[in-house]
Amino acid sequence: MTAPVFLLDSLADVRAGGTLTLDGPEGRHAVSVRRLRVGEEVVLTDGHGAGAHGTVAAVEGKDRLTVAVTELRSEAPPHPTITVVQALPKGDRGELAVETMTETGVDAIVPWSAARCVTQWKGERAAKSLGKWRATAREAGKQSRRLTFPEVADPLTTKQVATLLADADFAAVLHEEGSSPLATAELPAEGRIVLVVGPEGGVSPEELTLFAEAGAKPYRLGTTVLRTSTAGTAATALLLGRTGRWS
Predict the structure, then answer these.
(1) Nearest to 197 by CA among 223, 169, 178, 213
(2) β pairing state of 151-152 and 180-181
(3) By the 8 A CB rule, do 207 and 115 touch?
(4) What is the largest CA-CA distance in the chain?
(5) pLDDT band for position 72 (cuts 50, 70, 90)
(6) Record's InterPro entries (predicted)?
(7) Using one digit for the tens of pLDDT, what is the confidence trace for 209-220?
(8) What are the strands of the beta sheet with 41-45, ordered from one edge?
């Protein structure tokens, strides 16, 4: 198995051949949950592309260990980037969508309160739900051994999503009635790809019109209809393969 990944606020002062300390919640997880022991390999990351590989040099108590750093690595920025605008699903399916998209390799996730969303984020619920999405992305990033975790943006309105689409190098709305397949769409080699995943009730005609005016055509994924919690993952995987990022 590859070495487990743990999150640090910063790796700015870390050097190969030196040591660093992992404590707090991440240290507790490493010591008390993963039960890491001296000599085992670990990876530490800031979640923004920097990583420190090393071995456990010492374990103290239940939440602290020292890592001897053997190598520093960094992930180059991806080209093109993939952003998924995710309509709010019901229940915990939002966290499921964030988890699987993160594991697949999405670069950014934007929560969207679409007209036909049953779930709406308001007040304290909005802050709590957004926190869950961000925590899910962080944990999925570690689980999938990423050094760069996806950004989970603040929720956008439909008009704000249209502005995001207008600024993209390629923009698409995933729609079962789309006349063109995403599998054959002409994609940019650089820049930003933005995909819109609608709610279970579908993207409304008014939203489709607004997004089309912003340059986002409707595209279909295949012959089956995917749920909102899985469509973004399937589309991300397709584009990662087509753009060569999975090669």
Answers:
(1) 178
(2) unpaired
(3) yes
(4) 60
(5) very high
(6) Alpha/beta_knot_MTases, PUA-like_sf, RsmE, RsmE_MTase_dom, RsmE_PUA-like, tRNA_m1G_MTases_N
(7) 999 999 999 999
(8) 5-7, 41-45, 50-60, 64-74, 19-22
